[in-house]
Write a structure and sequence with these properties.
alpha/beta; nine-stranded parallel beta sheet; 11 strands
């Protein structure tokens, strides 16, 4: 498995990296959140731009991106527009979605971009191509807020993301019961052991699935999401607590 190096962070080796989302609505809220994150154990920041009030005005978006970059220094930034169909705050047409992600990659201000894997193969490939031309890594993602698909289906989706050229395939699913969490973990282990030649990110959401955010090093998930302030998904722990648990587990392995 080839780790993904982003600035001074290597995703795919050792303790799973901690990614903290910023879900501010205004530029001021976004920068304020970023300042708080710099004093935490976060490795990566995910800017959830679907929360941002001026996201459809790229001039303002780029201006906020510059301020974010200055505030975070050398911490990698993941640019994510989570669409409403995958649990995000806003709807967007596929063409506009592709263009937004391509423009973001071209600024040189971000390090990773999230593209929803089932936006359409051509759309995904277009984002991947532009991102890679700009030296930006791609996280291909899929979210199911209603259920946990079968193990074979989870593995199949992750393999598809790999085939589409994503640097890091990611899937998040909702458990209906404890067995669903085991399904997600089994799929993670299968993908990581048998098919993945790059890091993957998997999680089972909500309180039932919180164990999946902690045991990535055992089962093969390379990054986990923690909160500083407002969480962006159900089941996110505070980044400080997350770091403590991940470090304790690592010591025992």
């Amino acid at each position: 498995m080839n780790p993904v190096k982003v600035r001074n962070i290597e995703i795919g080796t050792g303790i799973p990296k901690i990614c903290v989302p910023i879900v501010g609505v205004t530029k001021e809220e976004i920068i304020e959140a970023a300042k708080k994150i710099t004093s935490t154990p976060a490795d990566v920041v995910e800017w959830r731009v679907d929360w941002y009030e001026d996201i459809f005005d790229f001039e303002k978006t780029e201006d906020t991106m510059k301020a974010l970059r200055e505030t975070l220094g050398d911490m990698p930034i993941l640019f994510t527009f989570r669409t409403s169909k995958e649990g995000g705050e806003k709807a967007i047409e596929a063409d506009a979605y592709v263009e937004l992600n391509q423009k973001a990659a071209k600024t040189g201000l971000i390090d990773l971009v999230d593209v929803e894997a089932f936006t359409g193969d051509d759309a995904v490939k277009a984002v991947v191509e532009t991102a890679h031309e700009c030296g930006v890594k791609v996280v291909a993602s899929n979210h199911d807020f209603h259920k946990t698909p079968a193990q074979e289906e989870i593995v199949s989706r992750l393999k598809k993301m790999q085939e589409l050229g994503a640097d890091i395939p990611k899937i998040a699913v909702m458990p209906q019961n404890k067995k669903d969490v085991l399904t997600l973990l089994a799929a993670t282990e299968e993908m990581a052991t048998e098919y993945a030649d790059r890091p993957i990110i998997t999680m089972s959401m909500a309180g039932t699935g919180v164990i999946s955010r902690l045991c990535g090093e055992v089962f093969g998930s390379a990054l986990t999401f923690g909160a500083v302030g407002k969480a962006s998904a159900p089941g996110q722990m505070g980044a400080e607590d997350l770091k403590t648990v991940l470090t304790l587990l690592n010591k025992s392995l």
